[in-house]
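Input (structure):
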């Protein structure tokens, strides 16, 4: 199962809106085949492993298949994997965790058991759930998994008072940040980040088969038409309001940019409306990269699923731009609490991976 999880992790973020899944087939102590789901519309991990074994000339009758997620039992973009398992006369199926999708949840296991196949669940379940935590959130909460990311100084600043921010963290930290982008379905920033930094928001310096979508919150459609983010390296979505200039909308759509509109409430987008829109667009995980105002709005909604903070041993002082804005907290007992899940060092930088305490 550990090998199956390792195989699945290769495609983390690439399979959206599908989960990432790995499978390994074993018989008489020998690995016959292995595989992982490569992306939506492609064969599932079980089929990849079966085909791998068949190509090598192995008989699968009486074999055991280890799968990181409960096999599907319905027709989607591909046929049910339970049918293939039954047809090839597997003796046993070992599953890390059940699929939360109502079309599958427990049904795949039930079908296999009814056909006399031994089924064991819960093997390395904690790791399997973490692997697909974004997919599980997407299915059960009907919204994207929200991952906030900050790079800041030890005194909590993301830029100097002039807006200078390149680079707060070192090269190793930035490389790991690109891995976080790769694992996300979309990277989201506010228009101020675009105006200040003119970013690309693409995955660079590491290999990827798929670029995340780029999402810009721009209620007044201030984005300059020569912004680097408007290139064709990745899909770009600008979320604006009904007040946006129609002529500029046409110019942007002619460039291949997707424009989505949301209502303004007290001059701002409502995060709930935003999450509903992103769910409809089948975006499973959103990496929110800032700036301060955007990060703060997400924290206020308590819709944060993971918080990644890169801290550089630098000080910018009180006049620097704070990483998080006003939360109107009067008493320490009302502070937003997080659990430290991971701690790493990238030379002199420190990386914290946090999850909100329930």
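Output (sequence):
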């Amino acid at each position: 199962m550990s090998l199956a999880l390792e195989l699945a992790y290769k495609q983390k973020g690439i399979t959206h809106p599908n989960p990432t899944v790995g499978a390994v087939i074993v018989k008489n102590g020998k690995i016959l085949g292995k595989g992982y789901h490569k992306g939506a519309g492609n064969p599932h991990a079980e089929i990849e492993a079966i085909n791998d074994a068949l190509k090598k000339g192995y008989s699968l009758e009486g074999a055991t298949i280890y799968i990181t997620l409960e096999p599907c039992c319905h027709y989607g973009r591909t046929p049910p994997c339970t049918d293939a398992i039954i047809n090839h006369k597997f003796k046993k199926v070992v599953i890390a965790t059940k699929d939360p999708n109502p079309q599958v949840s427990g049904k795949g296991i039930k079908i296999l058991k009814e056909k006399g196949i031994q089924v064991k669940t819960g093997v390395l379940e904690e790791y399997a759930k973490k692997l697909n935590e974004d997919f599980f959130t997407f299915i059960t909460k009907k919204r994207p998994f929200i991952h906030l990311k900050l790079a800041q100084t030890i005194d909590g600043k993301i830029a100097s008072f002039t807006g200078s921010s390149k680079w707060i963290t070192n090269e190793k930290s930035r490389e790991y940040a690109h891995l976080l982008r790769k694992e996300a379905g979309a990277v989201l920033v506010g228009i101020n980040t675009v105006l200040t930094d003119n970013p690309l928001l693409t995955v660079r310096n590491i290999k990827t088969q798929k670029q995340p979508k780029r999402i810009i919150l721009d209620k007044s459609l201030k984005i300059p038409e020569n912004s680097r983010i408007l290139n064709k390296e990745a899909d770009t979505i600008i979320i604006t309001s009904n007040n946006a200039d129609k002529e500029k909308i046409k110019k942007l759509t002619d460039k291949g940019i997707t424009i989505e509109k949301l209502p303004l409430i007290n001059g701002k987008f409502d995060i709930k409306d935003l999450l509903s829109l992103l769910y409809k667009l089948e975006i499973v995980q959103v990496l929110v990269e800032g700036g301060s105002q955007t990060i703060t709005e997400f924290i206020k909604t308590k819709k944060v699923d993971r918080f990644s903070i890169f801290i550089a041993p630098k000080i910018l002082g009180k006049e620097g731009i704070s990483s998080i804005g006003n939360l109107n907290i009067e008493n320490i007992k009302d502070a937003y609490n997080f659990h430290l899940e991971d701690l790493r060092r990238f030379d002199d930088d420190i990386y914290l991976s946090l999850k909100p305490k329930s």
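Notes: The longest helix spans residues 171-183. The first strand starts at residue 22 and ends at 27.
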